[in-house]
Amino acid sequence: MKIHITSVFVDDQARAERFYVDKLGFVKKHDIPLGEDRWLTLVSPEAPEGTELLLEPGKHPAVPPYKTALVADGIPVAQFLVDDVHAEYKRLRDLGVTFTQEPAEMGTVTTAVLDDTCGNLIQIIQMN
């Protein structure tokens, strides 16, 4: 058994797609219209057949309080592995990405936390 798809609830799929593709560098895998929403998945260009990230519409009534509580407590909803957190932090800051936590060494990892503009905090992590 392995993880095939994981999801992030987003406020706006089009805005999320622009952020995750244009800023974070993911590539679109599936884009299937489903009424006013889409089955929209992204993958890492380094692993095009790897785990897909579903940009899930956040319309369910439980989603807004869930997302609000996580953001209020500073809890990232997802974690993405990078080779160099400091370099990625600089690259993303130069692209206008807002961070809620600058790079910090935590034992065997270095992390930073960013705002995905769609109601979520995302952590980037480097294994030291």
Would you kindly provide a written description of the structure presented here, covering whatever features stand out?
By secondary structure, the protein is an alpha/beta fold. It is 24% helix and 41% strand. It is built from 3 helices and 8 strands, in the order βαβββαβαβββ. The strands form 2 sheets. Strands 1-4-3-2 form a 4-stranded mixed sheet, with helices on one face. The chain has a 4-stranded mixed sheet with strand order 5-8-7-6. β6 and β7 (109-115) form a beta hairpin. The longest helix has 11 residues, at 13-23. It is globular. It starts with a strand and ends with a strand.
Search tags:
128 residues, alpha/beta, four-stranded mixed β-sheet, 3 helices, globular
Fraction of helical residues: 10-25%
Q: Strand-residue fraction?
A: 35-45%
Rounded mean pLDDT is: 98
Record field, number of beta strands: 8
Shape: globular
End-to-end separation in angstroms reads 28 Å
Biggest sheet record: 4 strands, mixed
Uncertain residue ranges = none
Instruction: Write down the Rg.
Output: 15 Å
What order do the helices and strands follow?
EHEEEHEHEEE
**Distinct helical segment count:** 3
Structural class: alpha/beta
Secondary structure layout:
Layout: E1 5-10, H1 13-23, E2 27-34, E3 37-43, E4 52-57, H2 63-72, E5 78-81, H3 85-94, E6 99-106, E7 109-115, E8 121-127
Parallel strand pairs: 1-4, 5-8
Antiparallel strand pairs: 2-3, 3-4, 6-7, 7-8
Please sum up the structure shown:
With 128 residues, the chain is an alpha/beta fold. The chain has helices spanning 13-23, 63-72, 85-94, and strands at residues 5-10, 27-34, 37-43, 52-57, 78-81, 99-106, 109-115, 121-127. The chain contains three helices and eight strands, in the order E-H-E-E-E-H-E-H-E-E-E.
